[in-house]
Design a protein that fits this description.
2 helices; 5 strands; alpha+beta; 5-stranded antiparallel sheet; Aspartate Aminotransferase, domain 1
Length: 139
């Protein structure tokens, strides 16, 4: 073995399935508050955990009501609330601050210490649910 090379090459210092230590920080609190706002805005919405992978074994919380309403993902320095059809939703409070260049997706990035606009977020959730309901196929 050459000098300076690690004996544990290829062995991570922490198993990949373990959550990074910073996952148990402020982002969990923001995600929980967003979850409550979504549940209050649309009690009929169903939450599922999707897109599980080794780096995020818990997955991403996704809310459905006649289609996907939104999902929340904790990124390294922010929490992102994404609306798949956000470009067509009214945003009178100007909350969308990420993914603005696309034709469909819109997102809100929350950084540590940011306030959550309860009325604005709930208004977007309700608008997304109404939009999904209007385009839902009859069963």
């Amino acid at each position: 073995m050459r000098q300076g090379a690690s004996k544990n090459v290829g062995s991570p210092s922490r198993p990949r399935s373990a959550s990074p230590p910073e996952r148990a920080d402020w982002r969990n609190g923001v995600t929980a508050r967003i979850r409550r706002l979504i549940e209050e805005a649309d009690p009929a919405a169903v939450e599922e955990q999707k897109w599980k992978k080794p780096s995020n074994p818990a997955g991403v919380p996704v809310w459905y009501h006649d289609g996907i309403l939104c999902h929340v993902v904790a990124l390294k320095h922010r929490v992102r609330l994404t609306f798949l059809k956000g470009a067509s939703l009214p945003d009178p409070k100007g909350l969308f601050n990420a993914c603005l260049e696309g034709h469909a997706l819109r997102a809100i990035d929350f950084y540590e210490g940011d306030d959550l606009d309860r009325q604005g977020i709930q208004s977007l959730v309700r608008a997304a649910a109404a939009q999904n309901a209007s385009s839902a196929r009859p069963r």
